[in-house]
Write a structure and sequence with these properties.
Blueprint: H1 3-22, E1 25-31, E2 39-43, E3 50-55, E4 60-67, E5 72-79, E6 84-90, E7 109-111, E8 117-121, E9 132-138, E10 144-152, E11 158-165, E12 168-173, E13 186-191, E14 196-202, E15 206-213, E16 219-225, E17 233-239, E18 244-248, E19 261-262, E20 268-273, E21 276-281, E22 287-292, E23 297-305, E24 308-315, E25 324-329, E26 334-337, H2 342-350, E27 358-362, E28 368-372
C-alpha cells in the first residue's frame, strides 16, 4: 500500500536533484551581422553569472559563477557560438565578499583582466559598522595583501572598483547615503605589486556608475559634483599615465544610470547630460550636443563604436516597459533602430526574468553581445 507513495516521493527527489544540477539558464546572446538567429549562451549554475571580459581576437568571453557543491567559484570560457570551451576553479577567498554573489563596485569585488586575481573589500561581518580593508588575493599563488587599510565601512560606499591593468586597481569611495560624511569622496589608483597608492584625489562627490576607463587604459572619465550632495557637476578626464587632469566637460546633471563611453580611438567621450546626448573632444575641448530626449524616457548609453553611439531608451512610469535599442549615426545625424531588437530574439529565453533589460557590447565585426544588466559592465 505504501509503494506508490514511496515511488512518488522518490520521483520528486530525483526530479529536484536533476533540476538543481542539470537545469540551464540563458545568460547572454550573440547576434552576428546578417545572421537569422541569435546564439544563446546558457549556464548550469543557479547562482549569478558575471561577465568578466570579451576577447575579440580569440572570439571568446569569460564568466564567473559560484559552484555551491564545490565551495568555490568557477570561471567559464565560451566562444561566440555559445559553446562552453573550458571551466577553471577560483578559490572562495572571502566568506562575505560578494553577498549573494553580487558583483561590481556595489558589492566590492573586481577580478583582474587575466582572471588570476581579485581586489575586494574584506567584509568579515556584513552587519558591523567597522572600517574595512581593501585587499588583494591571487588564485595562482595564494598571496594575500592589504592594499588600503580602513578604506570604508560599507560595500555601498564604494562607487567604483576596477582594474586598470593586471597590476593596477582603481577605487573610488563616497558615502553618498551617509550624512556623517564618512568617508569623504576619494579616488585612488593603487600599484598592486608594491603595494603603493600612486594617485590619491579628494573630490567634491563621486556618483556611482559615472565612470569610464578608455580602451587603451590611458584615460579615466569620472563625474564630480560641485558639492557634497550636488547633482550638478562635470566629467573630469584624468591621464592615468601622467597622473594629472587633462580636460573637463561643461557642467550639468548626468543621467542617473549608464555612464559615459569612450570611442575606439580614445579621443572622444559620449555621455548623457541634462537629457542631451553629448560628445566631448579631448583635443579641442569642444562639446557637441547631438540629440535631446523627452523627460518621459530613461536613456542608457551602451557603446560608442566607430561613427555610431548605441543606447537603450526605456519609457518611465510604465508597468512593463519595453526598451528600444538604437544607435545615433554621427555621419547622418540620424537615430536608427538596431536591425535586430533583443526582445525579438530573447523574449522567450529571458521572459519572466526581472533582468530582461540587457546591456550590450559591440565587437569590431559588428557582432553584438547582449548580457544581463546588473553584471559588471564592459569598457
Amino acid at each position: 500500500m505504501n509503494y506508490p507513495v514511496n515511488a512518488t516521493r522518490l520521483m520528486i527527489v530525483l526530479c529536484l536533484a536533476l533540476f538543481s544540477t542539470g537545469c540551464v539558464r540563458p545568460i547572454a546572446g550573440v547576434m552576428h551581422p546578417g545572421a537569422d538567429k541569435m546564439a544563446i549562451i546558457k549556464s548550469s549554475s543557479r547562482c549569478a553569472n558575471v561577465l568578466l571580459k570579451v576577447d575579440e581576437l580569440k572570439r571568446t568571453f569569460c564568466y564567473m559563477s559560484e559552484d555551491e557543491s564545490a565551495g568555490c567559484y568557477i570561471i567559464s570560457t565560451y566562444n561566440f557560438d555559445g559553446i562552453l570551451i573550458s571551466e577553471k576553479p577560483f578559490p572562495q577567498f572571502s566568506k562575505w565578499c560578494w553577498i549573494d554573489f553580487g558583483y561590481g563596485e556595489r558589492f566590492s569585488g573586481s577580478v583582474s583582466p587575466d582572471c588570476s586575481s581579485v581586489a575586494y573589500l574584506d567584509i568579515k561581518d556584513p552587519w558591523d559598522n567597522k572600517e574595512k580593508d581593501l585587499c588583494y588575493f591571487n588564485a595562482n599563488t595564494g598571496i594575500r595583501k592589504i592594499l588600503v587599510k580602513n578604506l570604508t565601512r560599507k560595500a555601498n560606499d564604494i562607487s567604483v572598483l576596477c582594474w586598470i591593468s593586471d597590476k593596477e586597481v582603481m577605487v573610488a569611495v563616497d558615502a553618498y547615503d551617509d550624512f556623517t560624511n564618512k568617508p569623504a569622496p576619494r579616488l585612488l589608483l593603487i600599484d598592486i605589486e608594491k603595494p603603493t597608492i600612486s594617485v590619491d584625489m579628494h573630490c567634491g562627490s563621486l556618483r556611482n556608475s559615472q565612470f569610464a576607463v578608455s580602451h587603451s587604459k590611458r584615460y579615466l572619465a569620472y563625474w564630480e559634483g560641485m558639492g557634497r550632495y550636488s547633482s550638478h557637476g562635470s566629467f573630469h578626464i584624468l591621464d592615468l599615465l601622467e597622473h594629472k587632469e587633462v580636460a573637463m566637460t561643461e557642467p550639468g546633471e548626468p543621467a542617473t544610470f549608464g555612464g559615459p563611453k569612450w570611442n575606439q580611438e580614445d579621443d572622444a567621450l559620449s555621455y548623457i547630460m541634462d537629457n542631451n546626448l553629448t560628445t566631448f573632444s579631448i583635443a579641442s575641448k569642444q562639446t557637441t550636443v547631438l540629440k535631446s530626449f523627452a523627460n518621459k524616457y530613461d536613456v542608457t548609453l551602451q557603446d560608442y563604436h566607430g561613427q555610431r553611439i548605441y543606447y537603450r531608451i526605456t519609457p518611465k512610469d510604465t508597468f512593463d516597459p519595453q526598451s528600444s535599442y538604437v544607435y545615433f549615426d554621427l555621419n547622418t545625424k540620424h537615430e536608427i533602430d538596431i536591425p535586430y531588437q533583443p526582445d525579438q530574439y530573447l523574449r522567450q529565453p529571458f521572459s519572466n526574468r526581472r533582468e530582461r533589460n540587457l546591456d550590450f557590447f559591440v565587437c569590431s565585426d559588428g557582432s553584438i553581445i547582449y548580457y544581463i544588466i546588473g553584471q559588471h559592465q564592459l569598457h
